[in-house]
Amino acid sequence: MDEYFTEDEAFTAGIQKQVETITGWLADPAMDAERRFELAQPKELTQPEDLRLFLTEQELAQAQWDQALVVYITGHGLRGQSRRHYLTFGHTSPDRLLATAFPTSELITQVMDSEAEHVLVLVDSCFAGSLKSELGVLFEELCAQRRDLKTLAVITSGDFEQEPHRGEFTWLLKLALDKVRDESAGFTAPHLSFEEWEKLLNTVGDENPGLLRALWVWPDSRRDEPSLCLPNPHYQPKDQVVEASRQPVSLSASTLEQYWLARASGRTDDDDPGWYFSGRQTLMQALVEFVHAGAGVLVVTGAAGSGKSALLARLVTLSDPLFVTRFADMVETVPAPLRPRLRAVDAAVLARGKSSLALIEDLLDTLGAEGVGGEPPLQALADRVAAACAKVLGRVSSRDQGTVRVRSLIQIIEARRCRPAR
Hints:
By secondary structure, the protein is an alpha/beta fold. It has helices at residues 9-26, 48-58, 97-100, 104-112, 131-138, 144-148, 168-181, 194-207, 253-264, 281-293, 308-318, 321-326, 328-331, 356-367, 377-388, 409-416, and strands at 68-74, 77-79, 85-87, 102-103, 118-124, 152-157, 191-193, 214-218, 226-231, 297-301, 394-395, 402-406.
C-alpha cells in the first residue's frame, strides 16, 4: 500500500522500489517458466474494503495443493491496544482501528489455511513482529496436518517494537540474494530451503549490524527441504540431451561425459569416436526388436549390478530424436541392429520405490494423458496405451538375468499393489 493522501512522492517511490526488489527476484523474465511466479498486484488500496475485494478476486483461500504462494505485504502498520497488528490506509483513524484499518492476520490466515503446499508470507511493516504472538494463537485453528507442514513460513521485518526504515527489509533480502548469486557460495539447486534462507538472512544481518533482523514468525524450526517459494536466482538448468518424456530413464549431459561415452560405449579415451558393446549385443538386439515389433510388456531382470539400467538407458537414449540429432556422428557408429528407431520408446519412467498410483500418474503425465470426467487413473492409462499402441518399458529386480514377456501392462501395475518395488 502506497497511497496515504500525503503527496509524499518519496514514500510512494520507496514502496515501489521495495516491490520491485521482490518482483525482480520472483518474476524475473530470465527465470525458467516452471520456477517463475505470476504477479498479482492491487491497483488501488484506499480502504480496508479495497483489500478485502482484492483478496476475494485472487481466491487465495482457495489455492490448491500444487500451487506455491508468496505474499509480500508492505505499507504503514500499527500495533493496537490488544497487541494486534493492523495495516493502515489514508483514512485510518488510530482510535478506530477495527473499522478503518485491516487486521494483517486476516490476510495471512487466508493463505496459510488454503491447501497450497508451499506458502511464504513477507510482512514489511512497522511493528510487524507483534504477529508472532498473534498468529501463534490463531494457527491453533489450522488442522494438525497443516501445522506439521514445514513448507509454510511467515517472516516479518523486525520485532514487535521495531519500525523499519523504508527499503531496509528489502535491502536485507537483496544482500541475501546477492550471496546466493555468488558462485563461491555453492547454491546450485533450483530452489533454496527455509533453513538455507534463514542462514543467509542471519549472515547478512551479522555483516550489517545497522540493519534490522528478519523475524521468523512461523515455523518454529526450519527444515532443509526445498521451498518452491524460494527460487534460486543463480540456478542454471541442466543441459538436457533427450526430450522430456524420456528423461527419467535417460542419461544427462554430465553422465554422458563422465560415464556413458567413456565407459558404457567402450571408448578408450575422449578422442576415440567408437561406440562398442561387449557381451551385450544379444540382449540389446532383443530390446530393439521388442520396441519395434513386440507385444505386451518386456521386463528386464537380473541381479544387482548386472547392467539392467545401462541396457534400458541405452535403448531409451538412442530412440530419442533430440539425442540422435545432437550426437549424430556417434550414433552412426552403433550397429543398426542395436539401434532403435526414433521414438521407438514413447515414454520412460522410474518405478523404484513408487506405489502403483504414483507409477500410473507418472506414466499419464509423461504420456501427456489425463483422465476424462473423473475416470480412474488406471483406466485412463489403459485407454491411452491401447489408443497409441505405445511400448512401455519397466524395470524390476530379480535373481535371474534374461527377458520375460508379460501379457499386459495392467498386470504389472496390479501386481505392484501387493508387492512394493525394491
